[in-house]
Amino acid sequence: MGWQDQHGQSCSRESGKFIRSTLCLLSCQSVGGDTSQVMPAAAAVELIHNFSLIHDDIEDASDERHHRPTVWKLWGQSQAINAGDAMFILAYLALLKLKEKGIADEKIASSTKMLSLACLELCEGQYLDVEYENRLDTTIEDYLDMAAKKTAALLAVSTSLGAYLGSEDSKLVDFFYQFGKELGIAYQIYDDILGIWGIEGSIGKSVSDIYQRKKTLPVVYGLQNSEGEARKRLEKLYSQKSIEGEDITEVTKILDHLGARDYAENLAEQYYYKALAQLEATRLDTSRQAPLKETACFLLKRDF
Predict the structure, then answer these.
(1) 158 near 275, Cβ under 8 Å?
(2) Is the dihedral of CA 128, 134, 137, 139 positive or negative?
(3) Does residue 115 contact residue 43 with C-beta atoms inside 8 Å?
(4) Where are the alpha helices (DSSP H) in the chain?
(5) Residue 69's beta-bridge partner residues?
(6) Distances (CA, A) of 163 to 38, 60, 104, 175, 298
(7) Do 187 and 151 form a contact (C-beta atoms < 8 A)?
(8) d(CA 66, CA 234)
(9) pLDDT tens per residue across all 304 residues of the chain
(10) Which domains does the chain have, with CATH numbers?
């Protein structure tokens, strides 16, 4: 979870943002629920997120996360897979602790199903993310489908779990699910922007999306909208095994010229406002919506 270093010592350096657990608790609070009751669910979604990061770092061969070496880099791929698998199991053990908080068995079973479906979507999205690295024909629609599964599914279950465990209103749960889903897509798009134009020291990992030939939204937009020599160069560069050095600078310049960053920022903003619309559709008091709106705003204004 980032609280200790590889020697088991308390670590003062940054850990994760704990966005998913925060969204779960704030969603519960927003519908009038008792946040202390849903702590196990908040822990579960955070554990699932960290499991996915450990495996993601292996698949992407990422050396650094949160300003420190990744798990596989320190202990090897085999032990990193084991650690990720353990976190996956711990998430479900955490959900079972809802019983100790007074949550009914039926709700615990439903919560388990909700989280399982989100995990399946997450895996599907990760498959697409890796698959698209080797393709030049990825469309914006393909990308949005991938983002909805890889990233938005877990945010959606975080918000909907909080609402479900804190309320008996199924319509509210649906609104909170859609809020999390739209916000998750906006979040992924903004993450793509940081992955190309972010400052490496701020985001806590190498700015390596271009190096790894990731089909992030700016790149997909560039491949779809470039012509002539620019298109030939992008296709040639993205047909290589990796993109390094001056080639990364060239890709960035081409994307800048095509307006890919502006396009991505505008689309992220559109999904952000779609998310807010879902929250407002709940007709909850504005004071109850405010913490979630502030969190959503933070996600689209961060530099890490």
Answers:
(1) no
(2) positive
(3) no
(4) 19-30, 39-60, 71-75, 77-96, 105-132, 140-147, 153-166, 170-197, 200-203, 217-225, 228-237, 246-258, 260-280, 286-299
(5) 64
(6) 10, 34, 15, 9, 21
(7) yes
(8) 30
(9) 565 666 566 665 565 789 999 999 999 999 999 999 999 999 999 999 999 999 999 998 888 887 789 999 999 999 999 999 999 999 999 999 999 999 999 999 999 999 999 999 999 999 999 999 999 999 999 999 999 999 999 999 999 999 999 999 999 999 999 999 999 999 999 999 998 998 654 444 555 689 889 999 999 999 999 999 999 999 999 999 889 999 999 999 999 999 999 999 999 999 999 999 999 999 999 999 999 999 999 999 877 6
(10) 19-297 (1.10.600.10)
φ, ψ for residue 239, nearest 5 deg? -95, -10
* Closest C-alpha to 196, from 144, 260, 109: 260
